[in-house]
Amino acid sequence: MCGIFGVVSKQHNINVGHLKELANHSRQRGRDSSGLITFEAGSYATTRADFDINKLLKSTSLNNKKLVFGHSRLVTNGHTDNQPVIRDGIIAIHNGIIVNDEELWKDINVERKFQIDSEVIIAIALDCLEKGVALEDIPTHILNKCKGVVACALLFPSMGKALLFSNNGSLYVADSNDSLYFSSESYPLTKLGLSVVHKVINETVVWDIPKANNTGEVKDCHSRKLDLVPALSFNAEKEALLEYNEPVLKRCTKCILPETMPFIHFDSLGVCNYCNTYKPKNQPKPKEELFELVEKYRRKGEPDCIVPFSGGRDSCYGLHLIVNELKMKPITYTYDWGLVTDLGRRNISRMCAQLGVENIIVAADIEKKRKNVAINLKAWLKSPHLGMMSILTAGDKHFFRHVETVKKQTGIDINLWGVNPLEVTHFKTGFLDIPPDFEGKHVYTNGAMKQLHYQKKRFTAMMDSPGYFNSSLFDTLAGEYFRSFTEKKDYFHIFDYWRWDETELDNILLNQYDWEKAIDTPTTWRIGDATAAFYNYVYYTVAGFTEHDTFRSNQIREGDITRDEALALTREENKPRYPNIKWYLDVLGIDFGEAIRTVNSIPKLYKSS
What we know:
The longest helix has 17 residues, at 366-382.
């Protein structure tokens, strides 16, 4: 996933200021690596770098250039290779993830040279040329074969042609008097004052570019030492460090919450206070109310709503409903803070490609974000406290801030959220000695006094480990401010009007969209979040339950599943997810053995059987 951009001058040299504007906006979509294709004095040249596009631009002379294409990349699969991809006289820059590239290589009579998924685009093009397919028809063959988002600029220097095409609309072109422009989003093009901006989706735009006999010189610049996307790994000795005891705990006779749940107590029938005070949450209003609500936001032939899109099962199912039932034309927005799994990114690609939906990415400085999480985890390991686990996910709260960024850039007001109403986890603040608020209807609530009380409790807990007072503190507080204190306008929940049904949801995602599941758990929940496997291991090891127990208990109260079904499900869901825990600690640079031994040594909240 990345932002791609380009300028071709029709007569003179490109406007360097315009190019930098396009590159700077592209940087919003990812800054882990970058690349530039340039044409000057009769020849092409390509530079690839594993650092920020701004740094690459500063080290590249942009004067006297007739063409510059580039990208600013959020590293996903194929992390050992970079774009632009060049081979056999063709150059490609690609935004998206092709999820079936392994299958495609089996049917193409072209030898694979790289790891990156984008190479298969060139391979299909080569196969088409070998078979005599017309140049302008090649993108149709590529889009017919590839699953996942493909927004691409494909250059054929020897023919003097470039093909621009997309299957989800994350590609825009504009034609001024003296230059041609393209970008992954419309906003930077309109910001440049280009009046005619065209969205490219399921069509081919053919540009004339300078001719050259070959693809020219290629330079690779390396500076990064840490692998941003390590592979999932298996090590029997390390996996054996993970404990999975099944403690005998007193549990509610109606739901499955155990005696270690903060603030829990049982009545004479053994039913817990969480059940006795529970108010049904999965009771949607009439759908007609939502249809009436959104009517004023609809735009004829234009995108008309923003869908915050994590790639998790609930936002994916929400997108399905918004497109197919509500009949709106969304733009999805993803905030990638560095701990979205590659699996989550691939599911984003699947959904957006199949539904033909543009995906706007706002990516954090991933190395910086992970450094923040790492220093907080090190502080936590020095003084483990269950109430402080939430500090590990504080960095993702800027999700709420950047909804407003995307609304301003697109001019779209309404945002529709696919938040599961049953994902209420009182225990996360309960371990900070904050009693549950049984009146909360949504997962995220806006309450100044409640947030201030929470911050006071957390600050007290932080005093036990001074390492929490580090450079990440401002980022944490800023994200939580935008989540809890800023006013939310034109902000609606799709599951306030559609009943959330796990069986229906799983059937649709797995069968209609070929949605990908994790290799280390049977559940489809929380598999796009790299942090979840670790914090749930901590909760289970110390307290004997996880957020799966609270979620399944809510399903029992709603009448969706039986207590016996919930116990059977959590018995599997609470098992340690070694590959994901290992991956999480690897990307943070935390020693797996030391971290797990620390967690295992924390005094249990229950008596060992």
